[in-house]
Amino acid sequence: MESGWTIDTLKALLDERYIADLRFQAERDRRYSEGAQLRAEALKIKEEADKIALGLQRDYQTYKDERDNRLREQLSSERGGYATHAELNAAVEKIEALLAPIMSYIAAQQGRGAGLNAGWVYLVGGVGLAATVIGLFLALSR
To answer: How far apart are CA 38 and CA 45, in angstroms?
Structure first.
């Protein structure tokens, strides 16, 4: 029984496979080179984006530093306008020393006024009691 394979058919088959293998390798090489080109382009784009990002970050940092410096200057200029605790305590003590005689005078006047008011209450109460006693005496004597 003969299979039909000859040296010529085997050569034709191996030639076809060799040509197909060459085409496959050429296609693979083309894809690899295209991939390498795309990676190189992506790397260029990334490097450019990194440069832009660094520039933006530098600009932002400069803006932030300027803003912080303005705030520090404002705080340091305002710092001289506020009283310290020691200065405030000294001023309060001076005011209290000036007001002490006035407060003692007011307290004395209020005490004298309270004493006079109490005296008037006793006087009016005594006169009322005397009038009641006299009225009762006259009423009972008749």
So the answer is: 10
Q: Which two tokens stand for residue 140?
A: 């009972």
d(CA 21, CA 13): 12
pLDDT of 1 reads: 60
Distinct helix (H) and strand (E) counts, the chain: 2, 0
Report the domain count for the chain.
Answer: 2
Two tokens, residue 106: 């007011």
Matching residue, tokens 């009762």: 136
The whole-angstrom separation of Cα 4 and Cα 128 is 158
- Looking at residue 80, its pLDDT comes to 67
Q: In terms of domains, do 67 and 127 share one?
A: no
Instruction: State pLDDT tens for residues 20-71.
Output: 999 999 999 999 999 999 999 999 999 999 999 999 999 999 999 999 999 9
The tokens for 82 are 């506020």
One domain, residues 29 and 67? yes
